[in-house]
Amino acid sequence: MSSQRETVCQVNDLEVGHMQQFSVAGKEILLIRSESGFSAIAPHCSHYGAPLAKGILHAGRIVCPWHNACYDAESGIQIEPPGCDNLAKYPVQVESGTVYVELPKDGKEHVMPDLTEPDPQSDQRVFVIVGGGAAGSAAAQMLRQVAYKGRIVMLTVDSELPYDRTKLSKAYLQSDEVKGPDLLRSADFYKRYGIEVETSARVSKLDVESQQVTYGNNTLGYDALLLATGGQVRQLPIEGADKSNVFTLRQAEDAQQILRAAKGAKKAVIIGDGFIGMEVAASLKQQGLDVTIVASHKIPFKNVLGESVGKLFRQVHESEGVKFKLETKAKAFHGENKVETVELESGEKLEADLVVVGIGVQPATDFIEGLLMDEKDGSLLVNQYLQATPSIYAAGDIAQFPHFITGQPVRIEHWRLAMQHGQIAACNMAGQKVPFDAVPFFWTGQFDMKLRYVGHAEDWDDTIIQGNLDEKDFLAFYVKDEQVMAVSGIGRDRDIAAISELLRLRKMLPASEIQTADTDWAKQLASISS
Question: N or C: which terminus of the chain carries fewer CB neighbours within 10 A?
Fold first, then answer.
């Protein structure tokens, strides 16, 4: 590929330890200056295209400000998901105090990682992945990245190739047309790299002793198995729950059905005030529907984000016209063939043209026997290498794994964490010994609010707020035994990125040193060594 040399800037225009986006000959680049010199890579995250210059650079790692994907500042290689691709790298020269970059005349910002092609003659092992969500798809790609050449078979209950589920309750439900989901990789990708994806394939049996899985009329043996079946939605056991305009949201076809129903509807009732319920409520309100949320809690997200942040979400929804019926439950759905009214336990009845039930998920592990499982929720207990047995791994929503700080078993239902799980499980399936100790991260978008959350806290002693909740510009620190376990924030994307690195490095300030006055978290990160 031909290239051209272009001037970027003068050496003194960029300090050591800093990065800046430049426009060079009509092309955008990200220039980074480290102790060893300059490097140049594509400037936008391969996930959703966030400007990386607004993120964090520390010790050779760039953290995306939106969803915390991480990249190597020298090579552009992605270190942490989300996203599937690396960033293009551009050669840099420095002459007489001027920085030059070699730009290809053609070429893409985002490039496929180096993947090995299958060679079953040299490696006759069979690795099976059960599940085509975030964990399963990330594992399949990572197996080829770590040079595994044997057979890969992915069994997914979805009718589609792996796709971006995070959009289903947000951008997808706000779109004007019903369409297919955004695929993570094309059919050609799976074909080229020998990843056999069996869609609409539901595994009915796992035989641990003989190392076989059964799906449909097929039985498949494996040398290593990754269980990444995700969650199955909880159903509402009340009268009328089986009516045609009562929906749950887990798969692309669910979102398609909801969007079709919304096009001819005026009133929607959402059962549940979790992230799915609240995101769907925001999306349907933006489609012009009259939306009411019914939930048993007094404050949305109180158990996850705390009372003050939960109240903020309710206030924002109410300011947009969403109505709440809280501290109550749906008793029955009434109507002929479709729901026409939702009866509450209080006796009140709400008119409805469609109902979306979002009361959580439970691990999809009903076909599994012979493995150590949690008696309460059916999740699989795994060690720090995500192993349930020497040959069986679990990732994503179904895995109960050691907490990154306490080491106690936790189960976390986040998209990015599932991708991280899938990648680490794949490395270990291929013979490496990589412990999982990553810091969890998730995000939600509702109306004009974009909340980021890093870490994991199931309970806390204290909450410290920096910033202003009313102005939607704050950080909330969740503290347990004087230790910061998690942080949420709105309007503080760069701070969250810096805090995620501090938590990863186990260098987070103790709670006693965190005041309500704002802290420059990027400066705090820069003050420590890696």
Answer: N
- Which amino acid is it at 226? L
**What length does the chain have?**
530
pLDDT range class, residue 71, cuts 50, 70, 90: very high
Closest CA relative to residue 357, chosen from 445, 303, 295, 415:
295
| Residue 376 identity (one-letter amino acid) | K
- CA-CA distances (angstroms) from residue 456 to 90, 307, 413, 459, 503? 37, 17, 11, 9, 11
What is the 8-class DSSP label of residue 13? G
Q: How far apart are CA 403 and CA 489, in angstroms?
A: 21
Residue with structure tokens 């109240």? Answer: 311
Average pLDDT of span 165-172: 96
Rounded Cα–Cα distance for residues 403 and 400 (Å):
9
Per-residue three-class SS string for 82-131: CCCCEECEECEEEECCEEEEEEECCCCCEECCCCCCCCCCCCCCEEEEEC
Quick: pLDDT tens for 359-386.
Answer: 999 999 999 999 999 999 999 999 999 9
Spacing of C-alpha 516 from chain mean position: 29
Domain boundaries, the chain: 3-111, 126-232+363-429, 246-358, 448-526
Q: How far is CA 99 from the centre of its chain?
A: 37
- Average pLDDT for 306-329: 98
Q: Read off the pLDDT of residues 426-465 as tens digits, 9 standing for 90 and up.
A: 999 999 999 999 999 999 999 999 999 999 999 999 999 9
CATH topology for the 448-526 domain: Enolase-like; domain 1 (3.30.390)
Q: What residues contact residue 92 under an 8 Å CB cut-off, 6+ apart?
A: 8, 31, 37, 38, 39, 40, 99, 100, 101, 102
Count other C-beta atoms under 10 Å from residue 286's C-beta.
15
Q: Is 272 helix (H, G, I), strand (E, B) or coil?
A: coil
- pLDDT of residue 107 exceeding 90, the answer is no
What is the per-residue pLDDT for 106? 81
Fold of 246-358: FAD/NAD(P)-binding domain (3.50.50)
393 bridge partner residues: 226, 387
CA distances from 102 to 32, 72, 444 (A): 15, 19, 39
Q: What is the pLDDT, as a whole number, of residue 1?
A: 60
Supply the pTM of this predicted model.
Answer: 0.96
Give the pair of three-digit tokens for residue 157: 């209950």
